[in-house]
Structures are given as structure tokens and as C-alpha cells.
Amino acid sequence: MALPAFFDDAPKITLYDPLAELLGASDDGTIEYGYADAVRLAGHSCPTVAGAYLMAVKALRALYPGELPQRGDILVEFADDVRNGVTGVIANVVALLTGATTDTGFKGLAGQYDRRDLMRFDADIPGEIAFTRRDTGACVVASYSAREVPPAPMTMPLLQRILAGQASDEQRGDFARAWQDRVRRILESVDMPGLVTLRER
């Protein structure tokens, strides 16, 4: 699987996971994640996956200034229902980085390291996703909008031709390149005002 080179240029984040340290998955408990990990999880790269990844990275950095975020000790709340739109896709990416799950995660050991009930939906929050540290109660709410990074004009017409079975191989290639070019521009615009908005709760 050859991934686009720009995936490696996207922001990366290192987390501390005490369960990974306990079970020997990482000798010091640290794990680095990059955008390619989110793509492997989702099975594709798109503005939604990029936005989910950037929201989580920026929120975690804001929650843990000057220290490593602790994976598995973060409560995540979504404003939307899990079945609404692309919320489920976003939740999967956020779960990858935070370790938070609904009732499907690790059950814990002697009451410790439980990853269940750390992800909730239909929450009354002033944004898309609230990230809360369970140790301090600090919380940031993240929202995402890619409107300022629009697709190339031919992107949607090409997609329509592909879905209708009317596209040539050349057109399919043109679409894929245009699609990933927008993702690249989104990832490069991580600090653009309005792309990812954070507010304290």
C-alpha cells in the first residue's frame, strides 16, 4: 500500500498509554500517531478523516500543554448521534487517538485501565466534540470546517461520472489526485483560523 507522501508531513502526536506500558506494547508507554494511522483505520483519506484527526490532535495538545496526553484517561463527547452523517467515522478516528470507547473497549484490570463509557453522543456542548481530562476536569470543545479549503471545481463532476460508471481510467486518476490534493491542503492549513476551532468549556 503506497500512501501519498504528504501524509508524513501532517502533524504527529505522541501519547502516553499506561496500559501499553503495563502490557509491554511500548517499553515506556509512549506511542506516536500520524495521519497515516487514521487512514489505515478508516480505510480511506478524505476531508472528514483529516478533520477528525486534526481536531483530536489540536484538542489533546491544548488539554496537556507541556506534557504527553494520557491515552485512556480522556472523556469524549459528541454533539451528534453516532449514526448521524459522518459522526461514526469521526468517532473511530478520535477513539484511535484517545482510547475512548462506548461499551466496546477494554474492560480493565482490577478496576483500572477501563476504556469503556469514555465516549458519549447527543451531548449538550458548544461545538462538535468535547475532550475532558478525567484527572483535572479540564475540557476543550473542538469544531471543524473545511469551507475555506474548497475542492477543485472538477472534483464533484468527476465523482459523479465515476459513480455513474461513465469515467475513463484517466478521469478516475484525475479525481483521485484532486481529492487527495484537497486533503493535503487541509492538513497543511492546520493553523488556519476557522479550520479547527477550540474553546474552553
Helix-strand layout with pairing:
Elements: E1 13-16, H1 18-22, E2 30-33, H2 35-42, H3 47-63, E3 74-78, H4 87-98, E4 119-120, E5 129-133, E6 139-144, H5 155-163, H6 169-188, E7 196-200
Structure report:
The chain has helices at residues 18-22, 35-42, 47-63, 87-98, 155-163, 169-188, and strands spanning 13-16, 30-33, 74-78, 119-120, 129-133, 139-144, 196-200. It is α+β, with helices and mostly antiparallel strands. The chain has one domain: 2-Layer Sandwich (60s Ribosomal Protein L30, Chain: A). The protein has a 5-stranded mixed β-sheet, covered by helices on one side. The protein has a two-stranded antiparallel sheet with strand order 1-2. Strand 3 (74-78), helix 4 and strand 4 form a beta-alpha-beta unit. The radius of gyration is 18 Å and the shape is globular. The chain starts with 12 loop residues before the first strand and ends with a strand. The mean pLDDT is 96.
Strand order of the largest sheet: 4-3-5-6-7
In total, the number of strands is 7
Which CATH architecture is right? 2-Layer Sandwich
Q: What proportion strand?
A: 15-25%
Instruction: Count structural domains.
Output: 1
Task: Report the C-alpha radius of gyration, rounded.
Answer: 18 Å
Straight-line N-to-C gap:
41 Å
- One letter per element, helices H and strands E, the order comes to EHEHHEHEEEHHE
| Helix proportion | 25-40%
Principal-axes shape call: globular
Average of the residue pLDDT scores: 96
CATH class: Alpha Beta
The CATH topology name reads 60s Ribosomal Protein L30, Chain: A
Provide a count of the helices.
6
**Which regions have little confidence, pLDDT < 50, spanning 5+ residues?**
none
Structural class: alpha+beta
Q: State the major sheet.
A: 5 strands, mixed
